[in-house]
Structures are given as structure tokens and as C-alpha cells.
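hey can u check if this looks right to u? its 129 residues, i copy pasted from the old doc so theres a chance i mangled smth
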Amino acid sequence: MKRVLLLLLLPFAVLADTPQEPGTRDGETHTHKDTFYVWDAGGEQWLSPNEFWAAYAERARGKNWGTGDRFPPYDDAGEHDVFLLETEKGACLMYFFHRRWRRANDVRRWDPLFTHHDGCPFVFDRDRF
């Protein structure tokens, strides 16, 4: 009986840990209980930054290069392509724009929190190449 009740209440417990109001635009951020959430307009829900990047990459208008620790071949990259770069300090969604890879937030301008999230501050460190 306790297990059944717990399973029935679990979705409400998860909802209680996310912002209750819907976002107004894709990429809008909200800090709730010391956690950073991002509004995914496509899925109409609050997600973690990394979940948001994955959802955005799936609907981006360029090619999704997936995940890796090295940039895709420059000559094969096209305008609006996305790539989740894994660094030693975490991941960062990259966006190919105006003939070079940039942090997706530098192009999309979601929120400054993204620039400091996970591996984003380190993607252009010279010692990683």
C-alpha cells in the first residue's frame, strides 16, 4: 500500500521541485530552490540546462553533430549546426555561426547563466587542444 501511494505521489514531488509558472520564451531561465531551470517552449516544460540543450539540438535548423570532445571537421560544418562539446569540466552546446563555432548562448542569447554553466567557460581554453 505504501509503495502504491509513493508511486502515485512521486510525480507531484518532482513537480514541486520545479517552477510552477510556465515560461514566456524559449531559453528563459529561472532559479528555484538553488537549481537553474530553463523553459523549453517546444516541450512546454522546465528542464535542466543540459536537458534543454538536448531538446534544442533536436529541433535546431542545422545539423546536430551529437556529442564529443573534439569539434567536427571545420570544412563539413554548416551554418546553424550544433554540437555538444564535452570538456574535462563539463559540456557546452556549440553553434556554428558566421563561419566558426561559438557557444550557443553567444548566438541565441538565452541568459548569461548559460555562459557560466558546466563546461562553457572552458570551451576555448588553449590548453585543451
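The two ends are 56 Å apart (CA to CA).
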